[in-house]
């Protein structure tokens, strides 16, 4: 029996190479969905071609990437530290969540199919509680969006440093997010794959994908960050290209078939 997983691409709207790469993979049925940076330079321009692919489209909640938006932006270390001692400005957090949701709805013309976070900020204390409360209020009379969590990590066979990164992300709120969201009726992923050091080119990424597919469970999410080119000032640009090459390759089809894994459509959210 085949295991079904969600492959979700992050960062749509960030730049032309990211957007084109995601659209290309969607047309090849290699993705379940993509989450959008609503303040990204090209989000509004490129959303129509994304919608034409039929994949699910979510909100990539952002508090750490400066995109010229109104509202707070913090370095990742700062927002983690402040959230852990509950010193983030509650009103500013709530306003930023509301604004990003509203912009998504205004541009996309529909509610987000799912929610995740840039650098996993949606899991953090203060942010997750505000997010869940706002989603319950805004979408009380419709289907609640699927929420991605970074827990139940699949890291067997990975180097210690990569395991540590995956478990660090999980420890920064994945468990509480899963418990609180599930109790409130939000659908979620089972486990989580996709964490690595954003290095090593195609050879390393092909190896990591093989390990994730070998151990993933039904209903897991595999996070990815593909692009079909290297944008200026994108520090991850080279590795984004490597991800795109692997995800668009025949080798991926062979691995999926060999491991009896199926990339499911967004209707499973």
What's the topology here?
Blueprint: E1 3-12, H1 16-27, E2 33-36, H2 43-51, E3 56-61, H3 76-84, H4 90-108, E4 114-117, H5 127-138, E5 146-147, H6 160-171, H7 174-183, E6 192-193, H8 201-215, E7 221-224, H9 237-247, H10 250-259, E8 261-263
Parallel strand pairs: 1-2, 1-7, 1-8, 2-3, 3-4, 4-5, 6-7
Helix pairs in contact: 1-2, 4-5, 8-9, 8-10
Report on the architecture of this protein.
By secondary structure, the chain is of the alpha/beta class. The protein has a single domain (3-268), classed as Glycoside hydrolase/deacetylase (TIM Barrel), CATH 3.20.20. Helix content is 44%, strand content 13%. It is built from 10 helices and 8 strands. The chain has helices spanning 16-27, 43-51, 76-84, 90-108, 127-138, 160-171, 174-183, 201-215, 237-247, 250-259, and strands at residues 3-12, 33-36, 56-61, 114-117, 146-147, 192-193, 221-224, 261-263. β6 (192-193), α8 and β7 form a beta-alpha-beta unit. The model has no long low-confidence stretch (mean pLDDT 96).
Q: What's the main sheet like?
A: 8 strands, parallel
C-alpha end-to-end distance: 20 Å
The overall strand count is 8
In CATH, the topology is named TIM Barrel
Number of helices: 10
Structural class: alpha/beta
Low-confidence stretches: none
The percent range for helix content is 40-55%
Shape verdict:
globular
């Amino acid at each position: 029996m085949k295991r079904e997983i969600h492959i979700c691409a992050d960062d749509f709207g960030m730049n032309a190479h990211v957007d084109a790469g995601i659209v290309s993979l969607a047309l090849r049925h290699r993705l379940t969905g993509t989450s959008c940076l609503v303040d990204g330079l090209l989000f509004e321009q490129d959303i129509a071609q994304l919608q034409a692919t039929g994949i699910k489209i979510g909100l990539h909640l952002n508090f750490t990437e400066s995109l010229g938006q109104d509202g707070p932006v913090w370095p990742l270390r700062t927002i983690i530290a402040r959230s852990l001692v509950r010193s983030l400005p509650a009103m500013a957090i709530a306003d930023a969540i509301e604004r990003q949701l509203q912009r998504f709805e205004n541009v996309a013309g529909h509610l987000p199919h799912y929610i995740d976070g840039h650098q996993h900020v949606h899991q953090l204390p203060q942010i997750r509680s505000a997010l869940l409360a706002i989603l319950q209020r805004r979408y009380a009379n419709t289907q609640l969006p699927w929420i991605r969590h970074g827990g139940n990590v699949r890291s067997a066979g990975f180097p210690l440093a990569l395991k540590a990164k995956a478990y660090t992300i999980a420890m920064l709120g994945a468990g509480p997010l899963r418990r609180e969201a599930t109790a409130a009726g939000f659908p979620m992923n089972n486990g989580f794959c996709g964490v690595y050091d954003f290095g090593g080119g195609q050879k390393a990424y092909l190896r990591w994908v093989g390990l994730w597919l070998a151990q993933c469970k039904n209903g897991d999410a595999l996070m990815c960050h593909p692009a079909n080119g290297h944008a200026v000032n994108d520090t991850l640009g080279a590795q984004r290209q490597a991800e795109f090459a692997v995800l668009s390759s025949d080798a991926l089809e062979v691995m999926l078939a060999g491991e009896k894994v199926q990339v499911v459509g967004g209707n499973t959210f």
